[in-house]
């Protein structure tokens, strides 16, 4: 690690089950953004509608998500405006990288 660059292996970051079948790894934050890696087991759904205070983005790494009527497979990149809502689910199991941009 240097003052202007951080490199890590995501799978070495501590994992926590935030809901049954959904595991989150909190990635190092900056004053401008927060990031997470989420792993969803097959047949899981975010348990409530997720409302965003700030812009949020996610990238589907593997598997397939269903979100707001869209089928999102590996390589899909989604951007949500502040105030938007969604509730991702998966039948196959899936992994996403989520990034929230912080106001300021």
> Strand fraction band?
over 45%
Q: Specify the overall morphology.
A: globular
Q: Mind telling me the CATH class?
A: Mainly Beta
Outline the biggest β-sheet: 6 strands, antiparallel
Work out the helix count.
0
Q: Which residues sit in consecutive blocks of at least 5 with pLDDT less than 50?
A: none
Integer tally of domains: 1
Taken in chain order, the helices and strands follow as EEEEEEEEEEEE
Describe the 3D structure.
The model has no long low-confidence stretch (mean pLDDT about 95). The protein has no helices and twelve strands. It has strands at about 15-20, 20-25, 35-40, 45, 50, 55-65, 65, 70, 75-80, 85, 90, 95-100. Strand 1 (about 15-20) and strand 2 form a beta hairpin. The chain is globular. It is about 0% helix and about 50% strand. It is mainly beta and about 100 residues long. The chain has one domain: Jelly Rolls (Sandwich), CATH 2.60.120.10. The strands form four sheets. It has a six-stranded antiparallel sheet with strand order 1-2-3-12-6-9, with no helix packed on it.
How is the secondary structure organized here?
Elements: E1 15-19, E2 22-27, E3 33-40, E4 44-45, E5 50-51, E6 56-63, E7 65-67, E8 70-72, E9 77-80, E10 85-86, E11 89-90, E12 94-101
Antiparallel strand pairs: 1-2, 2-3, 3-12, 4-11, 5-10, 6-9, 6-12, 7-8
């Amino acid at each position: 690690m240097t003052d202007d660059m951080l490199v890590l292996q995501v799978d070495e970051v501590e994992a926590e089950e935030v809901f049954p079948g959904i595991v989150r790894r909190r990635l190092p934050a900056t004053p401008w953004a927060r990031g997470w890696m989420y792993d969803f087991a097959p047949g899981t759904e975010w348990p409530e509608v997720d409302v965003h205070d700030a812009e949020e983005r996610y990238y589907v790494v593997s598997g397939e998500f269903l979100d707001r009527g869209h089928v999102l497979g590996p390589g899909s990149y989604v951007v949500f405006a502040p105030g938007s809502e969604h509730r991702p689910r998966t039948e196959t199991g899936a992994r996403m990288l989520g990034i929230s941009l912080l106001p300021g």
